[in-house]
Every structure is written in structure tokens, then in C-alpha cells.
């Protein structure tokens, strides 16, 4: 039986949620559309940025990109963090689904191999050998995936991390929300923290939102409204800030390599090298 207050809550009209931190559910899926199996940004990542590396995805949302990179490039470790506990719960569910899918795929291939064992590889081509090897490797990744990929609910700015912890840090479409919620000072603190936590030779993969998009979201809270009026730094200033003030050696833009995308969300994508 429900208490009186609970009954009253059920009778109230639900208020549309305001995503103060840009924590939209299934944001990556919304961006790329349901027809694309893989987020197009994953295709421009270089293997050496992820393979056998310790990686961090800040503002990971439901973990789709986080998991895709871990599976495709076999990272040493991948930590996804988000300020929204509901998104982290979904990310953990998505991780479990991926593990189960990879294990199921390997079991299916193993059954096929057993059935064809008596033929002693007759009719097999080198290409089918390599395809099977890829599937076996993919399944092996699945068995370890839950150990190598972790998701945590946290405000990245508030959590201490030992310097030189990561090789690669992702900051995809979250700089605007850090900027609006914590102002110029908070954004500079964020960039400095990322730099400190990267190992020498590490890299920051940054996808900043354009300044024009800030005004559309400035009223999501009183804090963002006030910060918007005070902000002096602009996304166009980020390259000089990150290289001259923060200390990154150089940067490159990789968004030109992105496949054509009709969703309208294509943004510049940069890699800053420490």
C-alpha cells in the first residue's frame, strides 16, 4: 500500500527533466541514428591510442563509445565516468550485454568448427581462417571485457587521481557543459587535471561544442545562466590554451577523416599530444 505522499506524487504531472550537465539518455545513439552500427568517431581512432593502453572516457553517457573502443582495440583498461548515476547503470548493463553477445558469438563459431572437424579443413581458404581467428580473438576479449572496462559515477573535477595514470583520455561533447556549469575557471581546472593525469606521450581526444550552441542551453539552470554571462574563453581559443597555457606539445584535427554523416552532429575532433 502506498503512503499518502507517494499517492500525491503519482497524481502530479511529471515535469520534463532538465539535463543540466548534458546528461541526455542514449545521447550517442541519438547522435548517430539507429541505422549506424558503430559511432562514426570510433572509425578515426588509431589503434595505438587504445591498444594495451590505460584509457579514461569522461562524460561517457551510456558507455556505447567506451565499450566499442575497448572491444575494437583491446585496451589494457578503460574507465568510463559520468556525473549521472542512471547513465552509469545503463552503461554497466550495456557492458554486460556486449560480454554476453561476444560469448554467444564464440560459442556459435565453436559449434560450427566441431561440425566441420571431420572434413579436416577441406575447402577452407586463408580468408576463412583469418575470419575465424578474428572471431576467436573477439570472444576472448568478451571474456575479459568486464574486468578491463569499468564505469563509475563521479564528478571528474572533484575526484583525485594520481598523476600519470592514463595514456589516453576522451572528452567527447562535454566541454560546453563543464564550461557552462563551472565557468572559465572550471574549464581551465579541467584541462590542467587532464594534462596532469596523462603520462608523457599520452593524448587527449577532444570534441568541443561550438560557441553558438552555448546560448541554446544557457538557461538550463541559474548557475549556467550566470556563468554564460561571465564566460570570456571561446572554443576557438582551446588550441592555444591547451598548447601555450596547459602544456600540450602539439595537436591535430582528425574530424576530416570522419565518414559522411547525415545526422547533423558532425563536430571538429582534435587530438592533443603531451
Q: What name does CATH use for the topology of the domain at 21-86 and 153-273? A: Rossmann fold
Task: Kindly provide the name of the CATH class of the domain at 21-86 and 153-273.
Answer: Alpha Beta
Total helical elements: 10
What's the arrangement of strands in the largest beta sheet?
3-2-1-4-5-7-6
Main beta sheet strand tally, sense and closure: 7 strands, mixed
Uncertain stretches of 5 or more adjacent residues: 1-17, 27-36
How many β-strand stretches? 7
* CATH architectural arrangement of the domain at 21-86 and 153-273: 3-Layer(aba) Sandwich
**First-residue to last-residue Cα separation:** 59 Å
Query: What is the N-to-C order of secondary-structure elements (H for helix, E for strand)?
Result: HHHEHEHHEEHEHHHEE
Describe this structure in words.
The protein is an alpha/beta fold and 274 residues long. It has a domain at 21-86 and 153-273: Rossmann fold. It has helices at residues 4-11, 27-32, 47-50, 64-73, 85-115, 126-148, 175-197, 214-217, 222-230, 238-246; strands at 54-58, 77-82, 149-153, 166-172, 198-207, 250-253, 270-273. The chain has a seven-stranded mixed β-sheet, sandwiched between helices. Strand 4 (166-172), helix 7 and strand 5 form a beta-alpha-beta unit. Helix 7 packs across helix 9. The model is unreliable at 1-17 and 27-36 (pLDDT under 50).
Keywords:
274 residues; alpha/beta; Rossmann fold; 7-stranded mixed sheet; globular
Summary, kept brief:
The protein has ten helices and seven strands. It has 274 residues and is α/β, with parallel strands linked by helices.
